[in-house]
Every structure is written in structure tokens, then in C-alpha cells.
Amino acid sequence: MKSSAAAAVLVAAALSTLPGLALAQEHEDEPLYYQGHENIGLGLFQSVSLSPFASMRTGFGPRMPSSLAEDAVELRINEDWASMLSVKDAWLLDYDVLRSNIGASWGVTDRLRLDLDIESGTRTSGTLDTFIIAFHRTFNLAIGNRRQYSGHPQRLQIRTPHNGPTILVDEHDQQPFQQALIAGAQMTLVRGDEDLPAVAASFSLRRVLDTGDLSLGSAVDVGASLSFAKRAGPVYFYLGGSAAWFGQEDFFGLPLRSLQWSGLFGVEIRAVSWFSITGQYLITSGGVDALQDLSRPAHEVTAGFKWDLGAGYLLETAILENIIHPLNTPDFGVHLGLTIRW
Fold first, then answer.
1. Is there a contact between 57 and 178 (Cβ–Cβ < 8 Å)?
2. Measuring CA to CA, how many Å separate 251 from each of 53, 172, 337?
3. CA-CA distance, 51 to 252, in Å (whole number)?
4. Smallest Cα–Cα separation from 219: which of 235, 231, 208?
5. In angstroms, what CA-CA distances link 81 with 39, 97, 147, 287, 323?
6. Count of other CB atoms within 10 angstroms of residue 97
7. Which residues 6+ apart lie within 8 Å of 21 measured at CB?
């Protein structure tokens, strides 16, 4: 699809809802789907690492404490679109990555929820370049080497460690798409109050439906997460960590690390009940050994907004930036999500 046009349509649709947001929340008889817990607000963005190797097997990451009530059902749709440009003597990574998630949850009790997600990711040619270059020019920001690769077709060129062969994957790649089914359970260990934070633990199983460019691996991947949430007035703080095991996978003969860990910290400012400003920082371990910066953790910073539209609808929009470590992190990205509860 034409990614830039699609993104413009999605953003316009999100912004068009703004005039009616406050009006939707004035009806006092509306169920408070997102306001039933002392320490949980509208929550963080449901996003995962889009770094080069983590994006080839997405789906696991820290899962924050949930406000889903007993017998309630939740449907989630999330899209993340980011541009990756990383250039060094040992590699050239130039492409866009599109991550899609459709998930559903059921509140078995106020403390236990069951989740089922279909998670997919695909690499495409770098069509976000046009927007990125226009943004830099508008605000007179340095473009660096991006102009050199503007309009460049999808390309992953990696010289493997220890004088191994060079991996070259271009726009003719037959398997840029990966997909998995993820089933999980999350238990609230501590509901929390004015003094104690909410504490939750989760366990997930991931069954690969389409391996993409990866080979080998285990029949089922395993992930676990522990997270905390605490409110201080109109500000909510979130902290979580996760670990995942993928078995022995490789990318065109390049072995990937079997164990992946992530940490997530976020702050939500909820000045009014129906709207929040949210920022979060995700750190994810590097996916390979002996590849310099690509072996180091990826740092992804996301900031944006959440709107409670009423009647169980929650809309979120955000942008992703690589303000910490650019060589193993997407250069720029956008996030859009919609959650429905009933």
C-alpha cells in the first residue's frame, strides 16, 4: 500500500474526533470502562520493539497492569510504522517496518485476564523518507546521510562476524512477512491503593504462523512479564520488564540470540478524565552476537496522546524517535491504536 497516504488518512481520522471528545464524556450514565482502578489510567501504548532483529519476531514485551473488569471483553487494533536507516562499515539497513496487532481479552475475574493476539510484521521500501526529509527541511534540521538513501529500495546488507559471508536482502525478498499467534494470561498480584502500586504478572506462549526470513527456532516461544503501576495525583507511573525465549533461530545463517529481554518505563499525565499525554521508554536487548551496535540494546522513545471517546472506545496516537542510540533503533515511526471494551 502507499504507506504515506495511509498514514495521513489515519492521522486525519484521529484528529477529526477531537471536537466531540469532551461532549462524549459529559454523559454521567456512561460506564467508566477505563476509570475503575486507583493506580491505572488510560495506560501506555501497546507497542513492541521495531529494532532490526526484534522486529523479525515481534509479540513479546512488558505487559502493564490492566483495568479490565470481570466478565468484560476488550478488542485491540494497533499499527506501528517506522523507518530504519543504519549505516556502518559492517552493514547497511534501509527499509520501513510495519507491525500490526489484532487482539482480544476477557476478564475472567477482576484479577485475571486471558489474551489472544495475532501479531505480524513486514519490511517494505523506505517510503517514510519523504516525510522525514520534509520535516527536517521545514525546521532546518540536519538530514545527515538520509538524502543519500532517499528513495532507496529496501536493503539489508550485513557482513557477518569473523569474516563470514555477507548477507544481502533487497526488495526482491520473497519472505519479508512474519506472523504469530500469541496466547497469554495476566494476573493482578496486588491491586494497589494510595500507598501500594498495582502489580501484575503475565505468561505468554507464541506460535509462529509464518517465519518470514528466519529459520529453525522452537515450535512454541515462551514469554513472561512483571509490571507495576502507581498514581500520584493526575500522574501515573508505569514500570515493567519481560523475558522471552525463541529457541535457536537464524537469519540467512546468522544465529540470533535465543533470549530477549525488555524493560519499559512510562509516564501518563491525565489532566482530565477523558484525555492523557503519555511518554514511554522501551529498552530491548540486541538480537545477535559480535555485531557491534546491533548487539547492544535498542532504545525506543514513544510519546503521544490517548482519548477516551466514551462508550468503551479508546483512541491513541503517538510518534517514535531514536533520540538515544540511532544505529540499532528505528529513525522515526508513528503509532495508531484503537481499543474497544464492553
1. yes
2. 9, 16, 30
3. 18
4. 208
5. 30, 6, 20, 20, 17
6. 25
7. 274, 275, 307, 308, 309
User: Which triple of cell numbers denotes residue 306?
Assistant: 490517548
Tally helices (H) and strands (E) across the chain.
3, 17
Domains and CATH numbers, the chain: 3-341 (2.40.160.40)
Res. 153 pLDDT band, cuts 50 70 90: confident
Q: Which residues pair with 202 in a beta bridge?
A: 186, 225
Give the pairing type, strands 177-190 and 166-170.
unpaired
Assigned C-alpha cell, 302: 514513544
Q: Identify which of 125, 96, 164, 120 has the alpha carbon closest to the alpha carbon of residue 334.
A: 96
HSE toward the beta carbon, residue 114, CA cutoff 13 A: 5
> How sure is the predictor about 147, in pLDDT bands with cuts at 50, 70 and 90?
low
Is residue 224 within 8 A of residue 200, CB to CB? The reply is: no
pLDDT tens-place string over residues 254-267: 999 999 999 999 99
234 touches 270 (CB < 8 A): yes
Who's near 98: CB < 8 A, 6+ residues apart? 3, 79, 80, 81, 121, 122, 123, 124
pLDDT score, position 142:
62
Rg (CA), the chain: 20
Residue 272: closest CA among 229, 306, 232, 228: 306
Is 181 exposed, middle or buried (CB count within 10 Å of its CB: 0-12, 13-18, 19+)?
Answer: middle
What is the model's pTM? 0.87
Q: Per residue, what are the HEC states of 139-171? A: CCCCCHHHHHHCCCCCEEEEECCCCCCEEEEEC
Q: How far apart are the C-alpha atoms of 175 and 282, rounded to whole Å?
A: 27
Provide the pLDDT for residue 31.
Answer: 53
**Cβ burial, residue 173 (10 Å; 0-12/13-18/19+):** middle
Q: How many angstroms separate the first and last alpha carbons of the chain?
A: 32
